[in-house]
Amino acid sequence: MLHAALGETATQEVVGQCIEMKYIGAYLLATLGGNETPSAKDIKKILSSVGIEAEDSRIENLLSELEGKNIADIIAEGTKKMASLPAGGAAAPAAAGSAAPAAGGAAAAAPKKEEKEEKEESDDDMGFGLFD
Fold it and tell me: Locations of Acidic residues compositional bias (predicted)?
């Protein structure tokens, strides 16, 4: 389904990014543990501890990209870039607020539907509860 929506090249890129996130996550875990410059061995150790077989080429690629860089600076730079992206969800509450006075009685009927949906969602555990 992803392949049909994005095409082969884009699908390979998305899958590649997901795989790379494992390596980035391991690198970040190592830095959180106090190792400011994790080595390939450190990253492999973290990944193998959760059953992931690490590829040397991907680790070396990551380390070459991050060589000489401070991870806190990279995160700060990324945060600035993310702040400039539109959030996308801000328009929905404004639209709902302006539509409610125009709808009149229809707005009162909407919460009743939501209550019914909540009851149905509670059955999603298929008979298995967390504490059963």
Answer: 117-126
Give me the number of domains the chain comprises. Answer: 1
Domain assignment present for 17: yes
**Among 20, 3, 22, which residue's Cα sits nearest to residue 11?**
3
Please classify residue 97 by burial: count the beta carbons closer than 10 Å to its beta carbon, then call 0-12 exposed, 13-18 middle and 19+ buried: exposed
| CB distance 62 to 20 below 8 Å | yes
pLDDT for residue 56: 94
Q: Select from 9, 24, 31 the least CA-distant residue to 58.
A: 24
| Whole-number Cα distances in Å, 3 to 10, 12, 100 | 8, 9, 40
Say which DSSP state 85 is in.
Answer: S
The pLDDT, as a whole number, for residue 86 is 85
Residues 38/27, Cβ–Cβ less than 8 Å: yes
Q: Is the pTM of this model over 0.70?
A: no
